[in-house]
TrEMBL record:
Pfam families: Epimerase
Matches recorded under PANTHER family: NUCLEOSIDE-DIPHOSPHATE-SUGAR EPIMERASE, PUTATIVE-RELATED
Gene3D superfamilies xref list: NAD(P)-binding Rossmann-like Domain
Name by which UniProt lists this protein: NAD-dependent epimerase/dehydratase family protein
Domain NAD-dependent epimerase/dehydratase: from-to ranges: 4-229
Length: 303
């Protein structure tokens, strides 16, 4: 596939874009900052400029296309993966975060669908559930948190992500294209297990705002590939996380300490994530392979 990938220079993108290229896909990274990876084509694009987005998506993916048949009247790309965004609060003023993210999102979806791209995957966020950046403590309404849980955030970043989901559903309704959204949990790079997780194992409270979950960049790459290879679902939202908790405390211990009185809707495993990935497993065949336990010793197993 030829993939127009936005935000390929970001924390998640700079792992996922090269991974897709390693699977035989041609990947163009549309970003203000080049990725500089040998297997990925960089294209500098300001996604808040509708003209730039349209022109970039309608243009040639690579120099090799100079000798290829033309694609007048549509896009040469088979799919769009839209990861670009201001990735959290407190990076830019709130109004800037909201305006930048929804403008870029609209421009990407409009260009893709008008140019005939039939598969769009976009990054939403765990923050849409209103827990991560809430003022004070907010608990889930029930456990595990699945895609049917209400999304009522307080912060500008998560608001922009909820708006992006509505925009995406609307473009699917207009065009019938497959549009899949990922509510991505806290993105963890492999080197961060040794750097960050010892503190999490000592103090589970550090992970409360992330619903005690995480997503390894390598498994996010797998999830993206699975979505690209799965057609015909229409518009769907998927939680994206690893299968286990990001802490050493067990599921039962976390419920007792942090979620007393919260409804638990199914029997859960000893170390099972509270950020349900059942839908991704069932519809996409997603099967996360990585864990902090591959790098660090679980302190509960020490003599």
């Amino acid at each position: 596939m030829r993939i127009f990938f936005t935000g390929g220079s970001g924390k998640a993108g700079h792992h996922v874009a090269p991974f897709l290229a390693s699977q035989g896909h041609q990947v163009t990274n549309a970003d203000l900052t080049p990725l500089g990876h040998d297997d990925v084509t960089d294209l500098r694009v300001d996604l808040t400029d509708a003209g730039q987005v349209y022109s970039a998506m309608a243009g040639m993916p690579t120099f090799d296309d100079l000798d290829a048949p033309g694609h007048e009247g549509g896009s040469a790309y088979d799919a769009v993966v839209h990861f670009a965004a201001i990735p959290a609060v407190l990076i830019a003023p709130d109004a800037t975060t909201f305006a930048t993210n929804i403008t870029a999102h609209y421009n990407v979806l409009e260009a893709a669908t008008r140019l005939g791209v039939r598969k769009v995957i976009f990054a939403s966020s765990e923050t849409t559930y209103g827990i991560c950046f809430a003022h004070g403590e907010r608990k889930p309404l029930y456990l595990p948190v699945d895609e049917e849980h209400p999304v009522v955030p307080e912060d500008s970043y998560a608001m922009s992500k909820v708006a992006g989901e509505v925009i995406s559903r609307s473009f699917h309704a207009r065009t019938g294209a497959d549009v899949y959204g990922f509510r991505i949990n806290n993105v963890i790079e492999p080197h961060e297990y040794a750097e960050k997780f010892p503190a999490f194992l000592d103090d589970p409270a550090l992970r409360r705002r992330n619903i005690f979950a995480y997503i390894d960049t390598r498994d996010l790459g797998q999830m993206t590939l699975r979505a690209l290879e799965t057609d015909g679902l229409g518009f769907e939202m998927f939680n994206v996380a690893n299968a286990d908790l990001s802490v050493a405390a067990t599921t039962g211990e976390i419920i007792e300490t942090f979620y007393d009185g919260v409804e638990v809707r199914k029997e859960m495993g000893r170390d099972e994530t509270f950020y349900s990935i059942d839908k991704a497993r069932n519809l996409l065949g997603y099967s996360p392979e990585h864990s902090w336990r591959d790098v660090l010793e679980d302190p509960r197993t020490k003599a």
